[in-house]
Design brief:
seven-stranded mixed sheet; 44% helix; alpha/beta; 226 residues; 2 domains; single chain; 9 helices; Rossmann fold
Length: 226
């Protein structure tokens, strides 16, 4: 198989904003004297609408101010923490190799809004490596619905069999697989605790993604998901 397009998630994959999301809510909880452990976050709060779930769970423990006040507090903490986020291991090199050596267009496929990710791409100096952006403004449905990947395929004029996707979460993996795309799981410390076995393979960094793409996804030294 010759790869003609790389689709990569943003949150949790390019940067570890998944850990930032958990940490921001953990600090909000601590403000009210409650500890939020990682297992509780992964199993009870993160899977569905994390902001609403986090607020509702906190409400079940104590009497809280209005929801908007709590969400604003979490947003301020999140925005401060995200400023310290760096690219995950091998991502810069992956983008560079796709652009310069492999000549593979890179598309970021995310459920986040353009106004959120564009400044981060510019700050991390990788905007020039990205050929296309598929954001929450591009399609109506969010992952795990495959609409975003179907849109990316149409935008790049490629077939599912000619593309690879890199995702960090069960929702993202399901979206890519339901679009018929070979998918690599690149877990972060939070999503590593989730079930990512629907991915075709699990990688530990961007360098392994390059090797997998160049191998034509033949079995090699990576962790094959079965």
């Amino acid at each position: 198989m010759t790869c003609k397009a790389l689709f990569i998630d943003f949150d949790g994959t390019i940067i570890d904003s998944e850990s930032v999301l958990y940490e921001s809510w953990r600090l909000v909880y601590r403000t009210f004297g409650i500890e939020l452990d990682i297992d509780q976050w992964v199993k009870q709060i993160r899977p569905v609408k994390p902001h609403a779930s986090a607020y509702n769970y906190l409400c079940s423990r104590i009497h809280l101010p209005q929801q908007q006040e709590i969400l604003s507090m979490q947003k301020r903490i999140d925005e401060e923490l995200i400023l310290h986020c760096c690219l995950r291991e091998g991502i810069k090199e992956l983008f560079d190799i796709c652009n310069m050596r492999l000549k593979i267009p890179v598309t970021i496929v995310t459920s986040s809004a353009m106004h959120r990710i564009r400044p981060i791409l510019n700050r991390l100096r990788i905007a020039s490596f990205v050929n296309y952006l598929v954001t929450s403004e591009s399609v109506r449905e969010k992952k795990p619905d495959p609409s975003c990947f179907i849109y990316a395929l149409e935008q790049g004029r490629v077939q599912p069999a000619d593309a690879f996707a890199i995702e960090d979460s069960p929702q993202g993996i399901a979206a890519a697989k339901n679009a018929g795309i070979t998918t690599m799981a690149y877990p972060n410390p939070v999503t590593a605790l989730m079930d990512l076995t629907k991915a075709d393979i699990t990688i530990g960094n961007g360098f392994e993604a390059v090797s997998y793409i160049e191998s034509g996804h033949k079995p090699c030294y990576f962790k094959k998901n079965v």
